[in-house]
Amino acid sequence: MWFRRLRKSPWLSSKISIGLPAFPKKLAKSIKSSRLRIFTLFLAVTLGLIWLVPQPVRSQQRPRDAELTLVSFAVTKAAYDRIIPNFVAKWKRENNGQNVKFNQSYGGSGTQTRAVISGLEADIVHLALALDTNRIQQAGLIQPGWERELPSNSIVAKSVVALVTRPGNPKRIQGWSDLARNGVSVITANPKTSGVARWNFLALWGSVVRNGGNEQAARNFVNQVYRNVPILPRDAREASDVFYKQNQGDVLINYENEILLARQQGETEPFIIPPVNISIDTPVAVVDKNVDKHGTRRIAEAFVRYLYTPEAQREFAKVGFRPVNAAVDSEFSRNFPRINNLFTVDSLGGWNGTQTRFFADGAVFDQIQTALNRR
């Protein structure tokens, strides 16, 4: 009641009429504004917490599993059986738990090359000779210049040619020249399907021309050796099986690493490393077209780089390959005799020249086989 009377007072009426009615509106507006600010702040904090809390959880979620296909020549399997699990574990540790599954294919280098060109979607190829890698490049699957992508011109492991004899060496095999003697049965793989066998052929040829002989003498010698070859297995592993398991032949021409691996598995036959020998250089490469199609380039490139680490090079050395890493080579030097006269394929004209001259259809090897088949 007093408030109503006060409002009727003439001297207060103007102030009251202006001030008192406005006061509750301002207060309401102020309260409403404060509530809005509080609500907005609460909403922002809540949304921030909702955003921030799950973020570390999402970032720690394991990436989708990856899959790589490795295609290699037969005698590398023992090395990759050790190398691949080490790489998979390392990649998983360093890449948020991502698993990598490897599909693997092993066989004769020439056969594997044809399979990749025909559609076997390899992400990585490790073949017995650069010629085979070049053929995949020429098919448009590998970019030119692949040799420069990795150390040592992309050569990842080496070997030399060795001669395995029967216990006690009853045929008294001492070196290359003994393989051409009458009554000596020689086991070697087929150069048309096996990279190992091409190295064997070139080692035979080079044993003459790199030791003072001429081209005709080399041809006569190689012809006499293949006259003593009763069977031509598809690859080095089959050649080893023919010699060790089927007990055929007096001497086996093979990779040094394959022979060292066989000794680890209980074989005891003696072997000879001829002092005139060829450096068997085996390259690795990423198959560009396939890794881009599969989205696996990053992992594939990491894997081939890993092959040059001391950890991986030791695994190659343990199964008989000569490492390309200098420190590891020194570490395993006792395992590998030094070769006094070691030559390379380049000294015989390079792979393009030797392929045309020796291994193409109708070339020297085919001519030798044709002549032998007529006898």
Q: Quick summary of this structure?
A:
The chain has 16 helices and twelve strands. It has 375 residues and is of the alpha/beta class. Helix 5 packs parallel to helix 6 and helix 7 crosses helix 8.
Question: How are the strands of the biggest sheet laid out side by side?
Answer: 2-1-3-10-4-11
| Poorly predicted regions | 1-23, 41-45, 53-58
Classify the beta-strand content into a percent band. 5-15%
* Residues in helices, as a percent range: 40-55%
Could you describe the largest sheet, including whether it forms a barrel? 6 strands, mixed
CA-CA gap between termini = 140 Å
List the defining traits of the structure above.
single chain; 375 residues; alpha/beta; four-stranded mixed β-sheet; 12 strands; 14% strand; globular
